[in-house]
Design brief:
mainly alpha, transmembrane helix, membrane, transmembrane, DUF5668 domain-containing protein
C-alpha cells in the first residue's frame, strides 16, 4: 500500500470540503457560496498538483482548469474582491 504524504491528505480534505459545501449550498445555505468557490479551486489545484507529481497527464489539465476558474471568478465575476 502506498504511503500518503501531506499533498495527498490535503487533496482529499479539500475535495471532501468541496463535496460537503456543495451539499450544504444546495440545501438553502447561499451564504456559503464564496467558500464553495474557494473549495472548488483549491480542490482542483491540489488534485492537479498531486496528479502531475505522480506523472499523470490529467494533473496538468486540472491545474490549467483551476487557473481558468480562478481568472473567471476573480476578473469576470469579481468573487474575490
Amino acid at each position: 500500500m502506498k504511503k500518503l504524504n501531506l499533498l495527498d491528505i490535503a487533496a482529499w480534505i479539500s475535495t471532501g470540503a468541496f463535496v460537503i459545501l456543495t451539499v450544504l449550498y444546495s440545501t438553502n445555505f447561499p451564504e456559503l457560496l464564496p467558500f464553495w468557490r474557494i473549495a472548488l479551486i483549491l480542490s482542483f489545484a491540489l488534485v492537479g498538483i498531486r496528479n502531475y507529481k505522480n506523472k499523470n497527464k490529467n494533473g496538468l489539465i486540472m491545474i490549467v482548469i483551476c487557473f481558468v476558474l480562478y481568472v473567471l471568478m476573480d476578473w469576470v465575476f469579481g468573487v474575490f474582491k
